[in-house]
User: Fold these one by one.
Assistant:
Number 1:
Amino acid sequence: MSQLRQHQSELARLDVDVKVVTFDNDFMAQAYVRDTKLSWPLLIDSRQELYEAYGLLRASWWTLLNPVTILGYLKLLWRGVRPGRPGSDWQQLGGDVIIDPAGNIRLRYVSNDPHDRPTIAMILEIILKGNAIDVS
Amino acid sequence: MRETENLFESTAGDLKIFKNPVRALKLPSKMVVCWPSEVDSRPCNELTDQWIVLSLPREFLILGPQLLFCELPMQPALPFELLDTLGNVHRLSDSRGRWLILVFHRHLG
């Protein structure tokens, strides 16, 4: 998300619509938008139906607490990002889906752990070149 | 093409199977199947979900795992209708004609 936000102006220039999806409740979602000054719409999928439909994974406890994941959190802390309190579902992982102007999926990236996200380079490559990837 | 062949454990016709899981692609438990795009037009969904299919120009096969971009049959995006934090309704169809990135967040903590 932070990588995407750093390239927000470039994505706007490319006329890319970005929508963030959460399963947390409206109260938490509004607090998140306020605290992070998120300018993209934050959609609430409280029943996690879209998460499930795109095959996004649920993490095991080992995935969430293994040394690699903890190292990822330490890196965030080092960069000044303070992890907050967990929301309603600790185990639901995220992912990213890129849909082309014709309505076809060009990327379905299913995160394998909390820090696993496509790079901004990958995202821009897909949009600029119109390639398709399935990383699940 | 000997170097290319060494990347693969086995071949079956034009199908080539990588020797090792492709960690560069964040696919630690999956095998990657590649075949030259110019000789095979079978839809990816004929293969099991546990395989990732890359259809690549033959000359790219020697590059192996670092090649992320490939041709896949287009799958239509899943329709949705969700409210945002301002109470606005968002639908897939709202973004027709534009690129859309859906960023699925983990918990918001």
Number 2:
Amino acid sequence: MSIAMPLIQLDNVSRWYGEVIGVNRVTVTLRPGITGLVGPNGAGKTTLMNMITGMIRPSQGTVLVGGVPPWGSLTTMHRIGYCSQVDSFFERMSGREFIESLLMLRGWMRSHARSAATHALEQLRMTPNMNRRIQSYSKGMRQRTKVALAIAHNPEIVVLDEPLDGLDAVGRHEMVELIRLFGREGRNVIISSHVLHEIEAMTNNILLVSGGYLLAEGDVREVRTSLRKHPNRVYLRCADPRAAAVFFMNRPNILSTKVEELDHAVLIETRDLDLFYSDLNTLVLDRGADVSLVTVADENISSIFGYLAGGGDTRP
Amino acid sequence: MSSLSFRRLMWSRNFWIVLVLASLPLGLAVMFCVGLMATMGYPAQLPRGDGNFRRFVELVFDAGYLSLGVIFAGVAFGSSAIREEQDDQTLHYFFLQPAARWIILLGKFTAFLAFTYPVFLVSLLLVRVLVLAPFGIEGFREHLISGSELMRFAREAIALAVGLIAYSMLFLALSSIIKNNVYALFIYGWEVSSHFLPDALKSFSLGWHLREIVGSRQEAGVVEVLAVGPSMLQVVLVLSLTPVICGGVAALIFSRRQCLYGTN
């Protein structure tokens, strides 16, 4: 798809609900591709998504979608598909009728709306169930129907709030593949999830949000690299963890070691990962250490988030 | 929007409220019919002059439709048009559509009217049939299909439509401003008690203007300030401006509404 996808720009955006701050001075530009929005409950993810989709206005700052504030913009509504985390439907309708009727609100002819609804539900593997009433659907089916609604009108911007919620393992895999397809098509996809490794499976581009603040943005590895003041933690499993700990403690770039006897492992804190790997080579080749596992414990999102938010276990 | 709203209306709470409201005058008419046939047999003799019969029909229309049906149908619509979607957390589906907010309101209103008005109209016709049933064919010929009765029925039908529109818009505007529906009781109380108020205060009653369409005169107020009813110009102005102004207020408030559920 070679379409000039709109940028989503948030400039010093804040949103408060009475005395509660939902989002606080967030400035970020979201480019085409998949952006993962990561954070705990109450971090401000849904608030950000609601502002981007024009559901709510920012209390301060500006939100622009393709250069236009989404609030009250009918043009923007044509370009956005939103899967809210709220589990609500017109229960007495079938999945197909539900999507079809909302597409007709966009001014589509019934036949066109019906075929688009059918196609969207087919993409979400809902064909066998699309003529059943939504009130008889399982949680996973309801989730698929929501996502189908979000994509049925072929939007340029797809905002998915917890789209993997309620899906089984196969469903999650299929949803991840579908989202990655959207990203390859050049759409602007914003997705939030608590299933962190699945966010990583879809994208390296993340926004870390907590307490309404944007803690970090960008590639997971770049975010990690930028945190130079935070040491890397490496999890090393070997036959003699104590000997390994003694070896590494004598190295200048090593800050600390911690032996975990039960796991036959040692957790090493290092200031310089490259030097550590060089030392590891020495340990294995020159000292003959029997090493079975080496993992950089904090190149995943949860570890980084733990650093930034203060706390959190970084062991794999 | 109207067809979606119509589907949403079917089997909903408002659906049953409208059916109940339309059934209440029918219940009165059934009691009249059964009672008359039980005392006078079938067919009953037509009463001398048609004053009593006409008065009964006027009372049923006034009490069952103008003083009750259209008011509470208006409350049902006004208080739930948006609140129902808010409570069901389906409001965002409408907000995500590339349609002006007032179109959403208009679609809901037309769907409500498309269902409620025919139901009330059928109820009104059935009331007449039931009231006349004890008198047999002669009763129908004299009091149902005669010119004057048809004219009266047409005026009642117009008053019903105008009343539904006016009260629906009034309560839609009020529910946009006031969360608690207790205001509906005040307005109902006002409309009912306007029977006993001077004409000057009656001017603030929609029901008083609606009755002018039908042509039924109320009893003189306790304190007579002005002894005349509203002019037709006043009736037209009040009954046309009320829905326009109230609808405009509701549309303006709704256009600024944000979808706040779902954020935790």
